[in-house]
Amino acid sequence: MVKKAEIARQKLFDGDEEKCLKEVFEIKNQIITLTDLYNNPLRALQKSIDDETYYTVIKEGNFNLINSFNEKYLSEEGLEVYYLIRNELIYLFSYGEYQPGRYMLFLEGLWYYEPWDKEE
């Protein structure tokens, strides 16, 4: 079972990629850096949760699937969507080069996910 947290979409960073790599973000008492989520594209989340939950997250986030060599999900700005799991929360971020030399990072949403270790 999944439930979306009541948190507004937030722009966390807008600027040079080098500066973003050095930034530290605190979200829901969790310290997060860009390197924490960079190797977690949204498509990989499907391996960690059930299909129904995965597709609910995709639909509610209004993410667009792009089929290329590696399929990826994009946000409304065309930035790739990534995830991070911490303390039964799924954090969703979008990140990428919005314009030449201008990188943006958004917190797209938080999801509470219950059955991490529960038997069905």
Describe the protein in words.
There is one protein chain. It is built from three helices and nine strands. The protein has helices at about 15-20, 35, 50-60, and strands spanning about 1-5, 10-15, 25, 30, 65, 70-75, 80-85, 90-100, 100-115. Strands 1, 2, 7, 8 and 9 form a five-stranded antiparallel β-sheet that branches. A hairpin with a 5-residue loop joins strand 5 and strand 6 (about 70-75). The longest helix has 11 residues, at about 50-60. The protein is globular, with a radius of gyration of 14 Å. The mean pLDDT is about 90.
Summarize the structure.
The chain is α+β, with helices and mostly antiparallel strands and 120 residues long. It contains three helices and nine strands. The strands form three sheets. Strands 1, 2, 7, 8 and 9 form a five-stranded antiparallel beta sheet that branches. A two-stranded antiparallel sheet has the order 3-4. Strands 5-6 form a two-stranded antiparallel ribbon.
